[in-house]
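USER:
Try writing one entry.

ASSISTANT:
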Amino acid sequence: MISTLSNSSKKAIITGAASGIGYATAKLFIEKGFIVGLIDADKKRLASISEEFKQDTDVCYYRSVDVTNEVSLKKAIDELTDSLGGLDIFFSNAGINGTWAPIETLSISEWDQTINTNLRSTFLCTKFAIPHMKKNGGSIIITSSINGTRIFNNFGASAYSASKAGQVAFTKMAALELARYNIRVNAICPGAIDTAINEKTTYSDALKEVEIKVEFPEGDRPLKNDTGTSEQVAQSVLFLATDASANISGTELYVDGAESLL
């Protein structure tokens, strides 16, 4: 059991915290002595990992929220910040792959779902975190992707790629606007990571009509060591959350084993 956390401990809120990168980051933050608030739509999973984390920390707060619902999201962020006793770090991580389909057949509702879950929620999270961070500064980290920023060969991912490109542009705009409050804003751009998000992706049968085959006979990840895990991405988030990155803002950090450089 980690000793009782002091008032000087970092306070962090993480969205999409019930699995994948969000879960790995929450676990790492707690190991480092942070006080953590978790947000995810999966209430059952949140309750389970909260009990798990309580083996290592005296406090772990969570709220089950759809990040596209602005009223519920603001309420959750306000309540968690109050429970944490402040807010130093906000990790805007919740997102979906959505539906991958040709633009011609992608429905407007499918487009909106992806844009709202990924890009709109990033705006909402940042907007609602600012009032809690203006006085003392802090760090906002946004999960973007190599898709839409460095690579464009995942055919059918037009909505997903557009949302991820938008997140990077938003990161840079927010970094400039919030610098006066000493709030740093950065993005992480993971490559292929084995998480539950892949299991929830819908692939259209019509993709074969628009795909251009890209083959990498020797593999699509140049870095040959054990890369591509949520835990590795979490280490990058930790770096951007702490004073080790005190002079870094408005930057996207690629965590992909050089995959996107091919």
Q: What stands out?
A: The first helix runs from residue 20 to 31.
